[in-house]
Amino acid sequence: MENEFKKISSAVPKESDFIDVIVSLKERTPTRCTYVDESTLMDKCADKVPSAERRFSDMLYKVFEEFPSLSRVGQLYASVLNQRFNYFHYVDARTEVMYASMMMIDISETYQTLLAADDCDSLDKCKSLKRAAFACMLAVVRRCVPSLHFLDKVREYMANLDDAGGEHASASAAVKYKHGEGYTVQQLLQHDFAENFEQLVDPQTLVWLEELDRGQSQRCEIGPLC
User: Fold this and answer.
1) Strands in the chain per DSSP E
2) pLDDT per position as a tens digit, 58-97
3) Are 21 and 52 in contact (CB under 8 A)?
4) For residue 224, what are the β-bridge partners?
5) What confidence score (pLDDT) does residue 126 get?
6) Which structural domain range is residue 158 located in?
7) Which pLDDT does position 93 carry in this prediction?
8) Which has more pLDDT, 15 or 202?
9) Cα dihedral angle (125, 129, 13, 17), rounded to 10 degrees?
10) Which of 134, 142, 143, 188 is in the most buried spot, having the most CB atoms within 10 Å?
């Protein structure tokens, strides 16, 4: 009987990994003054929203794919999983990560529509919408951080179980733990959360995103910089 958890090859992303994605998408300050048409800058700014979505969604969905469904976990390993962590918590955490991945797509599509609207007629408005999209994505990430942490603990424990001969000993040892001891998995991302994610944005996140923009949005007298 194979231990499916030993096949997980990627590290579970931390919140800081998502922050790094946002930082990596900031505009580069050129070494010399170069005129760039504002519409070109607006297009580049708008393109950062689907870029962030793809990277966030891929990071989350990879976790969902690599962590096995219960149907792929052998009966004995499933018993250990349930005794140590409660497999209902495991299913909830895995499902929440999948929902978070899907919500990144919803957020991106919502803001791409706003960015393409006629009233998005300036670079400042474009940057404001981009920051709002990033803030919503980070709000979703922070909501599922406990689930990511929980899954990482599951991986660490289950992947270190003995194969074949040591399985029964591992199962017996796991009985001493209470279900979900030391781990909490919050409720799944509900539909009403998907409709109101803007209300859950941390104001400090928007402040940080504004500072990030100001730190690299210098201009020359002859025109905006790329």
Assistant:
1) 219-220, 223-224
2) 999 999 999 999 999 988 899 999 999 998 999 999 999 9
3) yes
4) 219
5) 94
6) 38-224
7) 94
8) 15
9) 10
10) 134
